[in-house]
Amino acid sequence: MTIFRTARQSLTATLAGWMLLFSGQIFASPGEVSNVHVVPAPLLLEYGSGRFGVEQGLNIFVKDKSGPAFTAAELLREKIATSTGLDVEIKHSIPSKAIPNSIQLLATDTDDSLGDEGYTINVTSRGIIARAPKAAGLLYAAETIRQLFPAELESKAQVPGLKLSIPALTIIDKPRFKWRGCMLDCSRHFMEKEFIFHYLQVLAYYKINVFHWHLTDDQGWRLEIRKYPRLTEFGAWRKGENGAPFEDGKTYGGFYTQEDVRDVIAFARKLNIRVIPEIEMPGHSSAAIASYPYLSCNEDMTEVRTEWGIEKTILCAGKESVFEFEENVLAEVAELFPDEYVHIGGDEALKDKWKQCPRCQARIKEEGLKDEQELQSYFVKRIEKILNKHGKKMIGWDEIYQGGLSSTAVVQYWNHDDYFRGAIANGNHVVTSPTKFAYFDYPESENTDKPKWMRVTPLSKVYSFDPIIEGVEPWQEHLVLGGEAPLWTEHAPQERVEFQILPRLAAFSEVLWSRRGPKDYEDFLNRLDANYLRLDVMGIKYNPFEKENRGKPETAVTPAP
Ligand code: ACM
Ligand code: ZN
Q: Which of 12, 13, 100, 525 could form a disulfide with 113 if both were Cys (CB 3.0 to 4.6 A apart)?
């Protein structure tokens, strides 16, 4: 574990106070240093002397009886009790002093310098004390404590003879970015609700706090909308897989009821994860159009699409009935999802149909628009007004900048440098997800089953990413909210999701969480080795390419998993 001394300079006075307090116990021998491997790397870690060992009758103190701080206590209780077989109890009283054989999770509203998600951990031979101004910080303290213990902590059954201990140390930690996201496409492949719970736990383990949930696309509409039942009765099911023959009348698909969505949001909230729904428009909408053909220009789509690739059928921008539909859908979405943002897609909207549609052309004339790009801008701006009316902010892929955009929308940069630069110059907030660093649907190594057009995104490439992309001027940096790693799932059904995102998510989390500045890839790999062991014990099926080919060219061709 690298000790990040340079980080001190950027810390505030309160944090500096901490530093002074612990400056007597800084230095660790290399042997001790190798004991602890945390990903993402904390801001500051200093070793003390001695160790804390868990004994029978461990008490975990936490005030909260729900929310992320309680999740933190419950997580540690469950893991320690299961792996060791010891009795571990959660207590909701707050002791006034250090208690032997205890973990204390303490809310301290006094230390602003740690922000909404920062925390400190102090391990001595008597026990562990974590402090944080907000409950989220205590959850992240617990996620870190989890990684301080040996990998066997993650065992789902008792490990005979397991003794859990941690070297004495102090950690001070807080994230670099407030938007640390992962996008999961549940349209191309439907993912079970139970799987989403598991996926969210993996995100929380890496301190990811935004779940961008891609719920609608050409190949399936996955969200129950009460006013439009055909969206899920019909639009959630497709005949055959990716053009494969439609056999035995069996359709492929599934959807989330509004009750399911509420369960996912509640589960995510306990893990300090915001859930941002994506309802795609005006392109990538053919599942909606197949359900309600009047939404398109010429009602030419009556089946949910079974092939991948970009579809030309698009929502008609000339019909008022389309805006009425979106108004009603977004009203339900806004009521269901508590987050301040709704993602409206906006990417890859081919304009062929708009060029031929008399209604779309009439709209261009009436509104004095220059062309179909400005028609897209007209569409997007109307949608933003609908969302604003419901108290929501709009986010969309970088094409929402096409033809002009209000400065209040958030732009998710994925592919178009000019839109990204335009958005930044326009004062829009941005989330960065450039394909060549952040797309986890791209394979981690050259392998035999990837589509030819896909680039390879090795682990080292992900690790080299900085959300403050080259060319962003220092005075524009505040506009970059953070980054997001999308997983499009045309080639990644549920059982392949872990393989696609790991271990790259470990690198991505460090990019988003850990301090700015030159990163040490070798040090990361060293910590990743310990992480692999943990994932093994958890039974998570990560991509073993990097582990098995360390030091070899990352372009080696590997067989498909
Ligand atoms: C995208 O990858 N089409 C945003
Ligand atoms: Zn039209």
A: 12
